[in-house]
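Support request, please re-run this one:
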Amino acid sequence: MMFPDRLRLKLQRMAEEGLTRRLNVLDAGTGPVISYQGRPVILLSSNDYLGLAAHPSVVRAAVHATEQYGSGAGASRLISGTLPPHAALEAALASFKGTEAALLFSSGYLANLGTIPTLIDRGGLILADRLCHASLIDGCRLSGADFRIYRHRDSNHVESLLKRRTPGRPTLIVTDGLFSMDGDVAPLAELVSLANRYDALLYVDDAHGTGVMGATGRGTLEALAVEQEIPFHMGTLGKAFGSAGAYVVGSHALINYLVNTVRPFLFTTAPPPATAAAAHVALTIIQEEPQRRVRLWANRDYLFHGLRRLGFHLTETVSPILPIIVGDAQTAVAFSNQLLARGIYAPAVRPPTVPPGTSRIRVTVTSEHTTEQLEEALQAFEAVGQALRLI
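Re-run finished. Output below.
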């Protein structure tokens, strides 16, 4: 069989299982209401939790940086790609997070893919949560260390694995802070205790927590009161910050080490100055406008309780991520399509993004949704849920 024929056969099998995907081009891609295929729809799938992607000050910062420094950095950070917006944002992130230093990456995927293998290599042991983000899993595999999966949020399972290892063996525990597909949080206090007791490192990806969780928006570490016990972590700038890229914060020694060892940092063109400048202004807004988080959590509670009242099966979420578990992939696709017909944009999430049998509609809410929009969404969810006999 020729290569193109093999590809077509694989795609056919994926289609039969309801697992094929396509790119949807949005006429306008931000805000609580967007334009899709020429008509307005309520967007319930964006990670722009605080509505900063279209904030006038954030947009102006990106435009100004582009006019001043150009559309691209032109080189990797260690050649000639480090520009004032990069340095200013790193300093601001370190101050916000209460660490000595910070390092920018072009994406969260690159940050995890590069940082994990620098922290541990062949001969070491990695323990990762079963529902870790794909970038964490790939970073673990790339390290060459022995790799074990522990049951989701199960600290007892982590300890049982730690007890079996050879004493003194380098060990890294890897977890999301806030899990992107289930909306729940890692038991960070318990993982910190285990890491200290068994002389292991703890690596936390707080992509979805930063800007959202905690009294001041510093993230899941702040919300769970473990900032002082976790000396470094990573997060992203493409969600609550409304921009793009990622960061690792920690000590001067750690950041200097990463600058000299992380291959995706060494060999990637620096992030565009516009994204760094935009994220810097977004960070300022996050600190100066706590009312955005207040609105976000009010909207989250309104939609969460509304979906639960209708009888949908949600995960144990404690965040603005509200996954409605459907189970079957094809049913999830039908659910999404019927929602769209009623003016609600909320795509189905299917394997391999989530485990088999747990396909879902991953609903996300922002600070910018109005009560009227959320009520309209609930009416659509009720009608479609009843039509598909999910409620």
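The mean pLDDT is 96. Residues 291-310 form the longest helix (20 residues).
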